[in-house]
Design goal:
The protein has 358 residues and is an alpha/beta fold. Helix content is 37%, strand content 13%.
């Protein structure tokens, strides 16, 4: 029998989604599905999410999308994008009776229009408007399979982990979460300039160690300016993107979640540069850590570079709007100009002299 993993948390006997969840459980059980997390009491973390994915055959998200639910749904979509073998043929359905998933779909549509998400997210995250649609959607999608994301393998995975200590005068590390797919020269120039600026400010550059897009340019900018650059990646993504030259340290990890962990642990500040679904996933992880007061984020600022293009379109406007219900003082800072990022980071880093408001 196939197993579907429920997302969502049941907050008590008066939870408005309790009745919907009960109806879903009955229909799924009658249709022959086993069910994980039926009581809504299992928690997901970076250390266990891959295990939960492996042991499931399908995924169902309920109304009342929380920050954690958004993270899990985006993580599954990123897994489809990056050809995670553990997600092959496993469908995902989102029940959206309360419209709580609309902000995520609005954000993905925005990024699709900007070209940082190439796939139509609606082909992978299947939306159901009522309970009666859920089982037919799951069973049809399971028989049909998840659409294949075309990718060209450009590199063999041959790198292992290595580490070199930062140089004397090193003031800390800034992690840059960004796109590996953007090809617009204006964005690439910003990435290169920012990497160079980090080196000149004696700040290390931590990245996802991709060789293309903004990610590759940030590393190149830092390395060519003589800076310390580190990164983490996973074998199947390295085969798709390659590794940038000149890394000072590299942490090879088995999955994208332990990859995020090592990047977070080795950074003192985080910058959300223009990106796609992977960058959204990373921002959500940071927000969850902030919300949980996780020691790994203590004293570490999160800065969103809300770049405007030549038409005045705000790159991260829909993301900022989606996160507004969970924003707390110090959760993140928004800047619109490239040259504002490093001053903001240095002011807010542990031991910084002042606080900026988001």
């Amino acid at each position: 029998m196939p197993t579907v993993r429920f997302a969502g948390t049941v907050t008590g006997e008066r939870d408005p989604n309790r009745e919907i969840r009960a109806r879903l459980l009955g229909e799924l059980f009658a249709a022959g599905w086993n069910i994980y997390n039926s009581n809504g009491d299992q928690r997901i973390s970076l250390s266990n999410i891959q295990k939960k994915i492996i042991e499931s055959d399908a995924f169902l998200f309920t109304p009342g999308a929380t920050l954690e639910d958004l993270f899990k749904a985006v993580s599954i979509f990123v897994g489809y994008q990056t050809l995670d073998k553990h997600l092959a043929g496993k469908p995902t359905v989102l029940l959206n009776t309360d419209a709580s998933w609309d902000p995520l779909f609005k954000l993905f549509a925005h990024l699709h229009g900007l070209g940082t998400i190439r796939q139509d997210h609606r082909d992978y995250l299947l939306m159901a408007d009522e309970v009666a649609q859920v089982v037919p959607l799951l069973e049809t999608a399971r028989m049909r399979g998840v659409p294949e994301v075309p990718h060209e393998h450009i590199a063999a995975m041959s790198a292992g982990s290595f580490e070199n200590a930062p140089p004397a005068g090193h003031l800390g590390n800034v992690c840059v979460f960004c796109s590996a797919s953007i090809s617009d020269p204006a964005y690439l120039d910003d990435g290169y300039a920012f990497g160079k600026a980090l080196a000149e400010a004696h700040l290390g550059c931590v990245s996802g160690a991709g060789n293309s897009g903004i990610m590759g340019e940030v590393v190149r900018g830092a390395v060519e300016a003589g800076g310390w650059a580190a990164g983490s990646n996973v074998p199947h993504i390295i085969e798709l993107e390659g590794l940038p030259a000149g890394l000072s340290s590299f942490w090879l990890k088995p999955d994208i979640y332990t990859r995020m962990e090592v990047m977070i642990d080795n950074s003192d500040a985080f910058v959300i540069f223009p990106g796609g679904a992977g960058t959204v996933q990373e921002m959500l992880a940071l927000m969850i850590f902030k919300q949980q007061r996780n020691p790994a984020l203590a004293g570490k600022p999160v800065i969103i570079f809300d770049r405007k293009d030549s038409a005045g379109i705000s790159f991260w406007g829909p993301l900022i709007g989606m996160l507004r219900p969970w924003h707390r003082d110090g959760g993140f800072t928004v800047v619109e100009d490239l040259d504002q990022i490093i001053p903001a980071a240095r002011a807010l880093m542990r031991g910084g002299v002042r606080k900026l408001s988001a």
